[in-house]
Every structure is written in C-alpha cells, then in structure tokens.
Amino acid sequence: MKMGTTRLTTIQMIALLSSTLIAAGIFTLPRNLAMKVGTPDLWVCVLLGGICGYLSCLIIISLSLRFERLTFFEFNKLIVGKWIGTAMSFGFIAYALMIGAFEIRSMGELTQFYLLEETPISVILISMYWIAIYLLVGGINPIARLIELLTPASIVIFILVFCLGLKVFEINNLRPLFGLGPMPVLKGLTPTFLTFSGLEFLLVFIAMMQKPKQAKKVALIGLGIPVFLYLLAVIIITGGLSVDRMTHQKWPTFALIQEYEYEGILFERFDSLFLVVWLIQMFTTYVICQYVAAEGISTLTRLSYKKANYVLLAVVYIICLIPQDLNQLEKMGTIIGWTSFGYSFVIPSVLLIIAMARRLRSVEEEKNEA
Amino acid sequence: MENILAFLTRRDVWLGTIVIVLIPILLTLLSNKLKEVRIKTYTRREQNFISEPFTLTTKVSANLKQLKAIVGDSSDILYRQFKLGMDNRGCAIVHIDGLVDQQLLQQSILHPLLHSKQSKSGLNLFKSESIKEYLLHHAIETSDVTAVKDTNKLVRKLLSGSVLLFVDGLDEVLVISIKKWLSRTLNEPITEALVRGPRLSFIENIRDNTAILRRMTTDPNLTFTDFEVGERTKRQLTIVYVKDIANEELLENVKNRIEKMDIDHVAESGYIEQLIEDDYLSIFPQVQSTERPDRVMGSILEGRVAILLDGTSYALIVPASFSMMMQSPEDYYERWLPMSLIRMLRYVAAFLSIFLPSFYIAFVSFHQGLIPTDLALAIAGTRVGVPFPTIIEALLMEVSIELLREAGLRLPRPVGQTVGLVGALIIGEAAVQAGLVSPIMVIVVAATAIASFVSPHYAAGIAQRALRFLAMFSAAFLGLYGISLFFLSLCVHAVKLRSFGVPFVTPGTLYSKDDWKDFFFRLPLFTMRNRPKEYFPKDRIRRKNY
Amino acid sequence: MKRKLGVCLFALLLLCGCWDSSDIEDMSFVIGFGIDSSESEQSPIKHTTQIAATKKKGEQGAAPQGRMYQDFTLEGRSIQDILRALSLQLPYPVYTDHLESIIINQEIASKYDLSILLDQMLRDNVTRLSPLVVISNQQASDILNTNIDGEIPSSYISSIFENETSTLKIIPGVRLGKLAANLQSQKSFVLPNVKKLKDTVMVDGAGVVKGKERKLVGFLTIKEVEGVNWLSGKGEAGLLEFKDERDNTIVYEVQNYKTKVKPKYQNGNLTFHVQIEAQGWITEDWSKSAHNMSEHYVKDLERLAEEEINKLVTGVLDKLQQDYKTDVVNFSDSFRIAYPKDYKAMKKNWDDYFSKADVSYHAKVKIINTGDIVK
Q: Contacts of residue C10 in chain B, CB cutoff 8 Å?
C-alpha cells in the first residue's frame, strides 16, 4: 500500500463541490428570490435551479471524461484550436478570479456591517487573504483536506441555526403554492442559477480525481447538499418572515436569526455564530476559485503555480475593491451569474458537440499516478 | 470609465496591493531560509575517538598494553591476569567495574577457566583455532560470547560493559556479555497516570524496555532494529515495529532519518524527536512521546513505529496525528459509552483551553451586543474600576497562572502543590480586591487552566497553552473575526503539516466507514475491525469476523 | 509559519491598535426608548432614553440599592440628533444593542407616520430587530419612570409579554422587525397599550394602527383584545369568563384553540366565515350546581361559552369594521391563500374591502375536563 496520494478522493470532491456552491448566496439569495418571484413559491425555484445545475453538471462531466486526466485549460485547445482555446481559458481564469473577489468582498462587507464597524475593510480583507495564500501555496491536497474538515461542521451549524428558526415558522406564509401560476417561478430561476455558479470548476477538478468514473455521484451529492441547504434556508426564512418582509430586509437570513432569541442560553443571539461559520465557508470558496485560476495560469504560461498565486493575489485584491458600494457589488454578482451560465452551460455544450462531431477523445495515458 | 481611472489612482489600493503580496512573499522566503538552516550539513571532519586501531597479536601482554594506551588508566577498568587451569597459558580478563555481574563472572568464567582440566575434547590446544573452540564450547558457561577481531569494536564493547578475555596464542578476543548495573525498579508512569490500566512504565534501561514489550506478545513479527546514535557517545537506539503491519515506506523513512541524524550526544529521546520531525517551526508535536508500554504496543499494532532510546524512559511513536493528541489508552480500557463522552469532553476542553479567554475578550471589548443583556450588565458592573483594557487584564491573569504552574513544577513536591493552590487563591482574590481584574476574568482564567489540564498528552497541552496567547492577541485585534481567522489559520497549518509523510490531520477519517468510530467517539471494540487507514498499514484487518 | 503569523499580528496590534475595541464598562447600555410629542414647534419630538445603571463596586451579590436606571428626556427634531445630544450629558457613548422596548405615546403616534418615527432604529445596524414596541395613552417618559423594585421598567414591560400563554387579554408582543415589515407592506396591526399604575406597569388593551396611513387610529379595550385574539387565532391559551343564566361566574380555561377563516369572493362580494374551535377545562364554577358531571350540564356550559365567544367577537368586529376600518385580525392572509390573484389587486385597499365584508362566525367549545372535584 502506497502512502498518500496526490489525487482527490471522491469524498474530498463532494466536499469541494458543495463548499464552492455554498457561499455568499445564503445571504443574498432569499431577498433576490423574493424580489423576483414575489409569491411564496421561492423554494420551487431553488429545486428547479438545482435540477438545471445537475443537468449542466452532466454535460461538463461527459465532456471531461472524454479527455481523461486533462483539465479544461488543456483540452479546450484540442477541441477548438490553440487561439480560441487560450482565450477561453483566460476568460475562465478571469471569471474564477471574479467569483473569488466577490466572495471575499461580500465577506468583508458583512463582517464590517455586523461585527467590526470601525475597522477599515482593507484590514479585514488583507488578513483573510494572507491566510488564504498560506493555504494556497500548499497545493490542492491541503485545500481538499481543509474543506473536508470544515464542511461538515458548517453544515451542522447551518442546519442547527435554521432548525431553531422553526420557532417562528408559520406554514401560512408558504401558502398558496403556484397562486399566481408558474410564471413567477420561472422569473426566479435567474437568481438561483447565479447562486449555483461554481459548478464549472468541475471542468478542472474532474481531471484530478482518483476515480473520475464517480464524477456523476460527486455531482449528485455535491450539488444535492447545497440544494438541500438552500432549500431549507429559503423555506424556513419564508415561513418565518413571509415574502413581503423578505423583500424589505437587507439580509433576510440575519433578520430570521434575530427574530428568534432563545433566552437563557449563553449564546442568546445566534447570528454571530452563524456569521463566523459562514465567513469560513466564503473563505473556502475563495480559495477554490483562486486555486483554479492559479492552476490555469501555470498551465498556460511559464509561471510556476506558486508564483502565479502571488501574482493573482494582487489581482484579486484589486478586483474586490472595484465595487464602490453594495449595489455595485450586487451588480458584480449578476455579471458573475451570467458568465457562470456561459461557462457552465453554453461553452461545455458547444465543446461537447464539437468534440462529438470530430470524434475527439484523449489518448489514454496510464500513468498510474494514483 | 472615469470611476475606474479614479479607482486605479487611489493610493490606498496600491499600498494595500503591495502589502498584501509583499508580506506573504517575505514570510515564505524567511521560512524557506529557516528550513534550509536545519538541512544544511556541517562538513565535519571525520572524527576518530579511538586514536589508532591496533592489530591484535597472539601475545596477551602486548595486547593489553595497546588497549591501555587507548582507554587510558581509568580507575574503573580492571585488568586481571591469570593462567589457564589446564596448561598454564597466560590469560587476562578486562572489564569495567560496576557494569558487570561480579558473581556471574566469578562462577561462570573465572572459576571454569582457572579450574579447567584437560577435557575429553581431544583438541590439540596448541593450535589457536582449537583453543578458541575449547573456550567457546567447553569452558565458558555464559550464553552471550563472541569472538571479535576489530579493535574499535572491542573498545566500544568494553566500555559498554562487556568482559574481554585475552588468551595467549589467540589473535582474537572473546567478548563475554554479562552486563549488570544498577537500574531503577519498574514504576508507575508519573506523567501519564491512569485510573485503570497497567501500572507499568518504561525505565532507563533499553534492554528492560524491549523485554517489557516482548513480554506483551509472542508475535514473531514484532521486530527490534538497533542503531547507534551520537557520534561520540554511541547510544543504543531501537526501533520497534510489527513487520507485517507497518508500512515499508514509513519504515524506510524512519530509518533514513535516524541514520542521517548528526549529533554527538543524545541525552534524551526529545533530541531525537526534534532532529527527525518534519517541521521544526510548527507548534504541534509531530512525534508522540510516551512512558507507557501499553500505549507503544497499541500504536505499533496500528502500523506505527516506536523508537526507544537507551537512557531514557520516554519512547517515541511516529507518525503522530491530531487525533492521537486526544486519545488516552484508558479510552479502550473502560466501557465505550462513558469513554465516548469523556473523549468528546476532551475535545471541548481543548477548544476551551485555547479559545475561552479570547472569546471573553472578543465579547467584552468588541461585541457587547452578542451577550444576553443581564450578563452584559453584570460584566460591566464587575469591570467598573478596572483600569486596564480586557486584553491586558487577561494577559495579567494568564501569565500569573503560567508562572504558578511553572513554579509548582520546580519546587519540591509537597511545597509545590501548596504554592500552586495558595498562590492561585491569593493572587486571584487579591487582584480582585485591589481592583486589578474583574471576578469574571478570574473565573475565565481558572476554567481555562482546568481545561488545559484535561489534555491526555503533555506536549499537546504545552502547545495549547502557547496557542491560547496567540488567540488572545487575535481576539484583541479583530474580535470574533480575529478569532475565526486564528481558527482558520490553525486549521490551515494543521492541514499542511505532515508527520513522516502522513498528513497530520486526516479528515477523511470522519467519512471513512471504519475510522470515524475512533475519532470523536470511541465505539465498542468489536466495531473496530480494521486498523486506521491514517497510517497506511500493510494489513488492514484486525479481526476477520466477530 | 504559525508563530511568525502571530508575531506579525502582534506587531500590527501594537502599530495600529484595534479600531473597534471599547470596553464594556465604558458604554451606556440603552434599555428603553420613549417617544412623546412636545409642545414646542421647534422640536416636536420628546425622546426619553433609559440607560441601565451599572452596579457600583462593592455591591456585588447584595440586593441592589437605589435605582437601576437613569432616564434622559430631550427634545429635538430627529431621533438621531437627540441620541447624539445625549453625549453632552453622558460620560460614555450610548449603545443601543440591548434595547428592550420602545414606548410610543398615543399623541405622537397618531400625528406622525410610524415608519418615520422608527426610521432611525430600523436603519441602525447596531439596534437589533428584537425590541418590543408598545403604545401608551400616557406619557412615555412617565411610564419609563415607574418605580419598580429592582427592575428596569423597559425590561419589565418586555417580560410581561412572556405571559401570553396564560391569558388571552394580551396580544402577542410586537417586535421591531415584525412592525417594520407590517409598516412597509402597509398592513394594519395592533400594538399593545401600556399604562402606569402606582408602582408597576400594566398592559391595558391595544392601539390600532392603520396600515395605509401608518398612524394610530384608536384603541381597543381588554375585552376587545380578547375578541381580536379569538378572531386571529394568534393567542396561545388563556381564560374565558362567562355567566350562566343565573348570573353565576364560570371560568373556562382554554388549553388551545384554532381559528379557521374561510373567505369567499364572488361578484365583488367578500364574505368570511370564521370557525373557532376551543378545547379546555372548567377551572372555576360559582354556580353551586350539583351535577357537574352530567352530560347535559357540560353541554350547557359549552353553549354558554360559545355564546360568550360570539359576543366578544361581535363586539370587536363591529368596532374594527365600522369605526376603525382596519383589518388587524389578519383575514388578509387567508384571503391571500385562497385568492392569490385577486388579492394582488386588492392589496392596496384591503382595509376598505375588509370593512365592507360580511363576516359570519361560529364558535365550538369543547370541555374535556371539569376539574378534580365531583360535586
């Protein structure tokens, strides 16, 4: 038995995928959904969004499995030629950086709003970036292990915090189902899809799996966990606050947590607990994004992975300072969502069709690295 | 467009960018430099502690003279010359006084040699070959006898307590091992006392230690491999493993590192620990040290490797992992339900002992809104008149607790305990009376101290104490956010750390079908059918059916 | 690496200090707000801030002596301005995170839009959404100045509302978050009304806030509050006191009750049918009746209780539909569920539709136990 492997185990992949998807969305999704949908059918959107996400996962997987052990950055050249491929790759890198910057900035804004009013946001951001770079230079294995370690804890705390919200839950707030027909639900699909941006990183990660054959299972469970959590959150927030209130609250998630207060427990107020956990979750999302970007840079250019990381650190920092206020940040989120649609659905489908038409398949190289 | 331009010319953006990139780069360079410092090999001149190897002759007197030239005239070396009983051949016995079983020497060596008669062996004793054979096979009555020609080895053997027998007409020396010296009797392990479990600890004599381990099993796969460490002192070091369980890669790794060690004297196994560990800058112990033979046995049966050193009662176990810091052999001796609870308690205690004071700081000086109103008012009431900010208050108390703890260790035992107790009481009470600290702070500090004593692993306990101070600083700097950053960086560090090629933290155990049973909980023994995957054992199955 | 990180953090700590750090004893914990109107034109708002007095040293453990709070009443044009003006009088900055209740005087509540009055507290990121909001027909500053032994009046008020499981004469406390939501969606609602007794504070009826204007339009008495609770189904449990034919008092303890509202909307005609089902015990009976076990007698009592509920409901419905024209009993919710499309159009003027609606109701009381004693 060999000691240690450099490839990702199936469980690590599941944790990786689900913690990429669980991020700032938990704060923004409920309000965005409530604004778009306006009826209590929000949770149907989440479910539908999850199913759509799974479909695009399947496209990505069948594309990746055609080119075993090759990441997106390598195989797109095989399909569409060097130039378009490189352009696509750089677009992908820029997109990953945007998500990373977005997550960290939202984290900073939340922290500043709820915990540290006076502290300059750059201090909050920089200290987080330092820890991230310390992790990032270690490569994918420490990242995967960290995520494996933290994800179950955050999921448990998440479920706990929301289940306590059952205290103010009212089923009437969730009724009627499809009161205004299915149209509002379709309107809600866009914000949901934005929330599930991050799926496209599978394009890179499947190549690193120990058993790529299990990618479908990974997609199912790795997507199932976030969908379940978002579903739980949206249902309980809607039940506790009603749709009307959700549209008027800046962060409905916190409003729900502030709504119930369990007296007599040491932590009477759970929002801080929740915030701290979520902060860690956003950190992991950011780390994954930057890893993907750095991996891309190191495949495309002659920069080593470590050096690429330091360079990207500066880039991400500048990107995350670009939005001047929360509205611009939200706009950035929308842009990310649409780009995500491109990279998780349009581009993979096009690539897949071309690859199938040209009967492209990568040569099986049995290196047996695992 | 204008906005972007204005943004790009903002000075704080560029300043931040420079800071954000430069400091990690500098830190990485620094840590690389520091790591190189350890790897750097000193090109030391090959040292020869034995001046000149001589060649043995067939003359006893000449050989003795040469030997004396090397070992000098130390008063504890005894030279005894005599004539062999049967043919008056000149002989000499050299040994060190105090390292040899005198009675055995008398009865089994001197007596047969002096009184031996021509036996029925029918050997021609004028040939050197046959005199050797005669002595080995007929005369000497002890079991461990070898003939040695290499004089270097000879000297080492002599100095480690063997008896040298020089015989005229033989250009070899018979080395007879009848070592015996004073050693401590077997005792209870003091640092790792258990309520239930064997009251047996390792002692300083390595032979006794290996014997203790051997007594626990008759498995032929239990293997001891010897090394000599220390350029000058040449201590004996033994690695212990079970041949068909321990991973070869791990074993190779351990042997390699031990052979590469460059040090002249190894006083304690702590030296070895520090020389072979992976990351000397880390705060976590990457090697487990223990006095308990049962712990060693349990570990090597999991596929780990133990390192015993002559002269110390502490054995080392590699590789170490995070979960081992929370385990105690007692977990397996008592019933599973209470022990599972106790193990969870340990996790809680470890968490408290690192984070409790920092949470206090964060809540009291940053997030007053997050504590219940009544408690907030109560804390505010007790803090009225305390002249320091919370961080100073906490530091004051924590440092004095650490002082008391150290003082209690150094003082003679009966005094030490009183000093610890009385000191804590008096300092706490007086500090509150004087208005230096608030009573709640005293509670926090006391609870932290108690929690830190729960750690079943001393080295881990020390690490927790150091981490607590870092946590306090980060809390004083950024409040709850600082604490979570600290927690994150702790996790990141632990995740990056490796101990002998094995990751220090293997969260995979949480999901593994078999391994989670012994992580947070300690499930019934029958469920643990496989050895933990963490250490990559060759043979995973403990028990095939139950 | 870890250690270096620590050193770095420490250096930072020394260099730039900690921005948000402030010690807990160096802040004034605001426990209650009171908002009154003032006579002067220049500064129409009279704002009372109740600050908890932190215990002095040496008093720990002993019974608290003297007042536990300080009140500061200031006049001004905006609440934020008044709060800032407090720093002229107080040694420490005010900290509103522990705010427990907000008392609004009737006069100012019917003069100003409530969402404007409470705007500061809703925008502030420090104030939580959990403080209780109550109306008072007396001066808020007086109520905050009630001398209750060992208690701060504002937290005293907020703990009264934990009693909603034992009486139906109190409406569930309205927290700031809920209030804000109601204001923003222009729903009508009721706020509890408090009044000052000699050395205690009492909840007495409720004030009705009309959603469209977001102003106080009137009050409900305790009896009417009971009716509101029966209609909205929001109460937990409580007592129902009624008289039998010979004017003897009988007390029925409601363990739980359910209110079902069935809306019907046809050709512009809005009707509601309310079905109330209660379950409980008889806990006190002054009627000296000799056969309290008999089925007949229990049926009788059930009928009497039903009548009493009907009476309560009629009284409050008349007042709500005729006088105040506001739907505070949440009929809109059941209508929304039944006719989501119509509701969308009627949402804006819901109160008008409500006041014109025909409401029929039927109460069904079940007595499952008549107590331990067999008479």
A: 473
d(CA B300, CA C229) in angstroms, rounded, equals 71
In angstroms, the CA A362 to CA B9 distance is 47
For A19, other C-beta atoms within 10 Å of its C-beta total 28
State CA A122 to chain mean position distance.
23
Strands C132-136 and B305-309: unpaired
Which residue in A185, A238, A258, A268 has the most chain C C-beta atoms within 10 A of its own C-beta, making it the best mutation to test that interface?
A: A258
C27–B477: do the CB atoms touch at under 8 Å?
Answer: no
Q: Which long-range contacts (CB under 8 A, 24 or more apart) does B340-346 make?
A: B340/B520, B340/B521, B340/B522, B340/B523, B343/B520, B343/B521, B343/B522, B344/B520, B344/B521, B345/B454, B346/B454, B346/B455, B346/B456
C333 contact A CB<8A: yes
Complete DSSP assignment for A335-353: HHHHHHHIIIIIHHHHHHH
| Interface contacts (A, C; CB < 8 Å) | 64
Six token digits for residue B250: 């791990």
Q: What is the DSSP string of C260-286?
A: EEEEEEETTEEEEEEEEEEEEEEEEE-
HSE at residue B398, side-chain half, CA atoms within 13 A, is 27
Residue-range domain boundaries for chain A: 10-356
Query: Residue B129: exposed, middle, or buried by beta-carbon count in 10 A (0-12, 13-18, 19+)?
Result: exposed
Cα of first residue to Cα of last residue in chain C, in angstroms, is 83
| CATH fold for domain A10-356 | Amino acid/polyamine transporter I (1.20.1740)
CA atoms within 13 A on the CB side of A199: 38
Indicate yes or no: CB of A180 within 8 angstroms of CB of C341: yes
Residue C85: exposed, middle, or buried by beta-carbon count in 10 A (0-12, 13-18, 19+)? Answer: middle
Q: Nearest Cβ partner of A180 from C130, C175, C340? A: C340
Q: Please indicate if any CB of chain C lies within 8 Å of the CB of A116.
A: yes
Cβ of C340 and A118 within 8 Å? no
What are the start-end ranges of the E strands in B32-96?
Answer: 77-83, 90-96
- Domains along the sequence of chain C with CATH: 24-55+65-220 (no CATH), 222-375 (3.30.300.210)
Tell me which residue in A3, A148, A314 faces B502 most closely, judged by beta carbons.
A3
Helices (H), B142-247: 151-159, 206-216
In three-state form (DSSP H/G/I as H, E/B as E, the rest C), the secondary structure along C228-260 is HHHHHCCCCCEEEEEECCCCCEEEEEEEEEEEE
Number of helices followed by number of strands (H, E) in chain B: 19, 12
Q: How far is CA A58 from the centre of its chain?
A: 17
Going residue by residue through chain B (546 aa), what tens digit of pLDDT does each one get?
Answer: 667 777 777 777 788 888 888 888 898 899 888 888 877 665 566 666 666 677 788 888 888 888 888 887 788 888 888 888 777 788 889 988 888 888 888 888 888 888 876 655 566 666 667 778 888 887 888 888 888 888 888 888 888 888 998 888 888 888 988 888 887 888 888 888 888 888 889 998 888 899 999 998 888 999 999 998 888 888 899 999 998 888 888 899 899 989 888 888 888 999 999 888 888 888 888 899 999 999 999 889 888 999 999 989 999 998 888 888 888 888 888 888 999 999 899 999 999 999 999 999 998 888 888 888 888 888 888 888 888 888 888 898 888 888 888 888 788 877 777 777 777 778 888 888 888 888 888 889 989 988 988 888 888 888 898 999 999 999 988 888 999 999 999 999 998 888 888 888 876 666 666 667 777 778 888 777 778 777 777 777 776 554
Return the partners of chain C (3 or more C-beta pairs < 8 Å): A, B
Quote the minimal CA–CA distance from C18 to chain B in Å: 5
Supply φ then ψ for residue C208, to 5 degrees: -105, 125
Structure tokens at C264: 């019907």
* Residue to test with chain C: of A35, A172, A268, most C Cβ within 10 A: A172
